[in-house]
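User: Reviewer 2 asked us to show a designed sequence for the structure in our supplementary figure. I'm pasting the structure tokens here. Could you produce the per-position amino acids so we can include them in the response letter?
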């Protein structure tokens, strides 16, 4: 098989869609006609998406002075929150950011837990707030 020819044909025939859509038979589809309902994605594809998403989170976060001032463990807490909330959602935690700016990590942790986000994600917020407060990861 001529893979280059096939790739060119499929690109023309399927088109490229960056967001999921319903195809002509009602299947959730993305990319160059990937049938997500029946095929989904493979682990290597999920890992690549995760890597790309982490890279994007980091590109946003390095623009925030308070983030840059954190140690790597606490930066990871913030990156985890950003992954979940999106950058704009994370930036809405104004009192948490002020506490981080003062290096008052106990107050930052309290602000994390005193949020709608904490109620939505449950144990995730408890774990991340504990790490924010202590600067230590317990496995």
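Assistant: Here is a per-position design you can include in the supplement:
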């Amino acid at each position: 098989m001529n893979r280059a020819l096939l790739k060119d044909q499929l690109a023309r025939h399927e088109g490229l869609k960056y967001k999921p859509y319903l195809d002509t038979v009602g299947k959730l589809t993305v990319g160059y006609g990937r049938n997500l309902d029946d095929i989904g994605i493979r682990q290597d594809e999920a890992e690549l998406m995760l890597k790309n998403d982490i890279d994007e989170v980091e590109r946003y976060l390095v623009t925030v002075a308070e983030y840059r001032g954190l140690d790597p463990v606490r930066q990871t807490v913030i990156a985890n929150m950003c992954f979940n909330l999106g950058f704009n959602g994370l930036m809405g935690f104004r009192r948490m950011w002020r506490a981080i700016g003062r290096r008052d990590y106990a107050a930052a942790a309290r602000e994390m837990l005193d949020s709608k986000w904490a109620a939505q994600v449950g144990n995730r917020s408890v774990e991340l707030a504990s790490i924010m407060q202590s600067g230590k990861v317990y496995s």
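For the response letter, you might also mention the following. The mean pLDDT is 97. The longest helix spans residues 43-61.
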